[in-house]
Amino acid sequence: MKKILFCLMIFASTGIFAQTSFRYGLKLGADYSLTALQVPNTLDTKLTPKAGFWGGGFVEMSPNSAGNKFKLQLEALYMTNNFTVSNTGYDDYKNHLDYLSVPLLAEYFVRPKFSLNAGPTFNFCIGATQSQYDGNSLKTVTNNISDQIKSFQVGLAVGATYYIFQGLFLDLRYNPFLGQANKNATTEYNKLTPSTATLGIGYKF
Description:
Elements: H1 2-18, E1 21-33, E2 36-38, E3 45-49, E4 51-62, E5 70-87, E6 93-111, E7 114-134, E8 139-144, E9 152-165, E10 168-176, E11 191-193, E12 195-204
């Protein structure tokens, strides 16, 4: 009986994949940090968002038929998150975070050229640096702060895609992370919550 059930599962999964249409593509663009920093009210601290860039590839899966309005999209993206932290009476700290982001999105095509997209993202921090101007050495000093940032965080992605011509499209998205990014929860800077807004262009083959 177990062998029969196993064979049926293999047959069913093979049938599903046989009916699924796959398309691949590339995308790139600019991002703008919306990262939030919560510190004690006694500190006059300000976070200034900066622009960055992102890019990568994706595979789109259309169950049953290529004309299905519901699709799944798996992506692998390199993303940056840049912002400056300023303290009155102190130097500015320029932060640069690098992420490998893996979004898994559900797409719904409202119209043939326009889709709404949403789903979870799995974000791996692959680098983090902090730069500041040193008045003694009269130069900018950059330090590796990767050990202070969580190596993995789950997030969300919500956005829309508009197809300009055939496979060429514009992509707009909001990407908030869930929870704080700092490993050290005992410091006063323990409420760093990354998020970005992205705008890009891509092509689906």
